[in-house]
Amino acid sequence: LESGKNVTVTLTSGSNTTTGSTFHAKKGGSTAEYSISAGSPAAPVSVGDTVATFSTGTAKQTATLTFSKPTGWTDAGEHTETLTFTIATN
Question: Which of 43, 50, 59, 79 pairs as cysteine with 27 (C-beta 3.0–4.6 A)?
């Protein structure tokens, strides 16, 4: 990575969530809603938001995403959603 450049990580999409900050994991007709937070202090993340930025000049950098406890599901078992992240330099 060139000096002065950044790596940014963006939450591009969810398989069941196209906009907003309430995400949807599904199992058949049952939907578990959850949210994601990033940063310190933690702030809500929406589809399209940058969730981490890493810059040159620091040897080790980390970022944490926190997932809330799901709510609203009606069927027991595994509910899923695929999240897509885009990594870019700028």
Answer: 79
| Cα atoms in the Cβ-side hemisphere of radius 13 Å centred on 39 | 11
For the chain, the straight-line distance linking the first and the last C-alpha, in angstroms and rounded, comes to: 10
Q: Give the percent of the chain with pLDDT over 90.
A: 80
- With contact defined as beta carbons under 8 Å apart, do 10 and 86 qualify? yes
CA separation for the pair 48, 13 (Å, rounded) = 7
Q: Is the pTM of this model over 0.85?
A: yes
Structure token pair of residue 13:
């999409």
Q: Which amino acid is at 29?
A: G
Radius of gyration, CA atoms only, the chain: 15
